[in-house]
Amino acid sequence: MIKKKIVIATGGTGGHIFPAYSLANYLKNKNFSIRLTSDKRGSYYLKDYNNFKLVKIPSSPLIKKNIFKFFYSFCIITFSIIKSLSILIFDRPSLILGMGGYASFPTCIAASILNIKFIIYENNLIIGKANKYLLPYAYKIFVSYKEIEGVPKKFLKKVNIIGNII
After folding, report:
1. Tell me: the pLDDT tens digits for 83-121?
2. What is the pTM of this model?
3. Which H, E and C letters describe 22-72, residue by residue?
4. In what order do the strands lie in the sheet with 95-98?
């Protein structure tokens, strides 16, 4: 039987990494082929877990404080989208799961460009910036809490309450 491939794109903090890791373990036990993407910060948390393929993607928030920092962060994000495109083209996953954080943004945008369905997950009461930018392109939005703030009404039909992933 051919395993379905899933890419889990996650931010670099523990609040993003640990739910992504739990989800990856669950899906691996259900016979899915899993690949994780994160940035340097996320790879630090995952360095002791060798049971998943991890791809480091450079990341940066979009810094608007001055023109030089803006240009630099824009270049990093653009490079990360291109790297994500190459990963997705060669890996051909069935689905992308974006776990939030700016390190998940390039992979989800690449999925959108390639018409690969992606689902975003938000485990906070207020939707994060990366997930907010991804709302129009996401196939579904999984949330931990019914009372989530920051999701425009036109996207509420995409919202599914699943609770916290632990």
Report:
1. 999 999 999 999 999 998 889 999 999 999 999 999 999
2. 0.91
3. HHHHHHHHCCCEEEEEECHHHHHHHCCCCCCEEEECCCCCCCCCCHHHHHH
4. 53-56, 33-38, 5-9, 95-98, 118-122, 140-143, 159-161
